[in-house]
Inverse folding.
């Protein structure tokens, strides 16, 4: 049963940093959200991407591995890696997380 009481030793500053904004109904940014906003890739116009790059981006947003993308698109995993490297170059992204973040921003999330 969750009583809402923390048994760990948490500094009061850490608790008040969250409870005060919540009590005032303000938005609270989690460390993950902060990290994502700091590392978010620059905006990109979808037209700058080829249709195959857009398809790979959509699969990445759905959480597919390179092997899964390759199977779905009828390509080799090496070719998928090439598309992902091109996507990183065009978007300035440094990892798959940033590409997935960009994909969601462009509307390529699940159900695309």
């Amino acid at each position: 049963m969750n009583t809402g009481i923390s048994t760990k030793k948490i500094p009061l500053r850490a608790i008040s940093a969250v409870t005060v904004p919540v009590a005032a109904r303000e938005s609270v940014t989690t460390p993950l959200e902060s990290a994502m906003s700091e590392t978010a890739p620059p905006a990109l116009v979808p037209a700058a991407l080829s249709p195959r790059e857009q398809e790979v981006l959509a699969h990445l947003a759905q959480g597919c591995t390179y092997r899964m993308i390759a199977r779905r698109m009828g390509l080799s995993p090496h070719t998928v890696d090439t598309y992902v490297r091109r996507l990183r170059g065009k978007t300035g992204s440094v990892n798959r997380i940033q590409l997935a973040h960009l994909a969601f921003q462009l509307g390529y999330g699940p159900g695309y």
Notes: The mean pLDDT is 75. The chain has six helices and no strands. The helical segments are 12-23, 31-39, 51-61, 66-73, 77-91, 96-105.
